[in-house]
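Standup notes
- DV: blocked on the single-chain target, sequence here:
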Amino acid sequence: MAPLPSRVEMSSALHLTTCTWQWEEAAAKGRAVDLTPQLPLVPLGARLRFFVMAWITLIADPWCTSVVQHGYYPEMTGRNYPRSASSRPCSMDVDQRAAMRVMVDDMYTTEVIEPVVCPMTLFSTETLPFAPVLPQVYSTYFLISKSDGGYRGCLDGRWFNQWVVAQSFRMDSLRTLRDLALPGDWMVKLDLASAYLVVPIHPHARPAFRFKTLGQSWQFRTLCFGLRSAPRVFTRLLRPVFAQLRREGIRLLSFIDDVCVLASSPWEAVQHGKRVVELLLQLGFLVHLTKTDLVPKQSDGEFLGAQVDLRPEVMCFRLPGKKRRDLRRVCRRLLDNARTPVSARDMSRVLGRMVAARMMIKDAALHSRGLERDQKQALRRSGKVWDSRCWLLSPEAILNLVWWIDVLGRPTACAMSLLESEMSIDTDASPWGFGGFLGSMCTGGFWLDAERQSSQNMRELMAVDLTLRTFVSFLRGRSVLVQTDSQVVCAYLNRQGGRFPVLSRAAETILRWCSAERLSIRCIHLRGILNTRADVRSRWGETSAEWTLDKVLYERIVRSLCARPPVVDLFAARHNAKCAIY
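- DV (later): unblocked, structure below
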């Protein structure tokens, strides 16, 4: 026999049924309204625990049910847990102290935090699965200014995070929206209120999330900002929820607490938005009314800081005007200080905004790599002291800033859909030479002595470069698909650079040359067993068949027999050509 639903869940379902007719009326008119059912008074802190039966009935995911019922217990790196530790409270001015007092009172009222009664809180009254009680760790709790003038609290968990397992996970982004959206779609946007604070923390783990402020000691009862695994835990909680909605035919994506729903018509967008809100409310989440936009939009939607235009003839991302002007101002400020040493933090402030705008500005990543390299070198020189002013901007970084200031001086847009490839080339590199094919036409050659000493990844990049330059007369002004058996080359060309400076500069050189030739490239990985003809061409030929004149003798012949130096060297290769054109 299935367990009976709780009083809170029954009341929640009743409110959802009562407001259904209002949703239907809005959908019939092709619009939506900001309508969140008024649930019974349930405390904000760890409120999901009141909706356990809904999670068991609707989601049936064991991990999610365990977290909702018992609370999240951090995955530790081993049994050697950190010893009890404490940190000093942060210094605050008068306004911050007042804001902190209001914030702490509010969190205590909503049961987000609880006072520390004794050095180790007892949990004998609760029935919990076995889990060791973590030692008490007092971290600094500080305030972060928000754009609306308020503050957001954050726990400085850097010391405790050393013992929390760092697991990789995937989050949706604007790239996901680009891949999911269809021409002519409509979108609605949802925002979950107090996302982390509705997720409970296992009582045996609460001593690790303590802080002291205004003369009192507190500990978190909920997930909090500052824990390394918090984004992964919240994303993992929502994954089966959204999987259930996708099985119902709803297209949606999320980035922590931001949710975007896509549909082919305004009516369908309203219906799907209604279904998403209903399920989230049934599971105990809260919807932020002021940040939620349930009116279907096509040309002026906004998601993750980008203006989204889904009209069939447009399909692009735009950088909002205010963010564009702010980014241009901080770039100009950093450029004005180019003659004096700057700190890694100064560069980081600009780079963070550049990275956020990459999907909204064409070739944005390509023109920020120089500044990224400067930041890494500044951190290396200062011993990872972020505020040490020890680095002069390099010419590459200065050129990057000049490019951004110029581009941000006018509205920006970046196409959402990738261009369909008109032509494709195959390339490969061996220790002896390179090979490339454009249809039935081929090219190849041997490496010079200096090139032969390069790494295999560098040789693969040079193979792509030389093949493109050989066939440039056929490729100019077209979209080209580059097929190579090197995944590193694909990553560096598609991402417009990367981590290692030598490879990144080589990729940037290729991409800038392509831009000058009005040539758009996209790189895909072709397995080595399929990339046979380019591989054979890179190893084909006998070096004994190639010969060259001695350089000194050639110059004497030109001076004595030629009125002017030759322009074209017929029947020559890269390593023995005497002219620029051969």
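- Follow-up: Residues 230-247 form the longest helix (18 residues).
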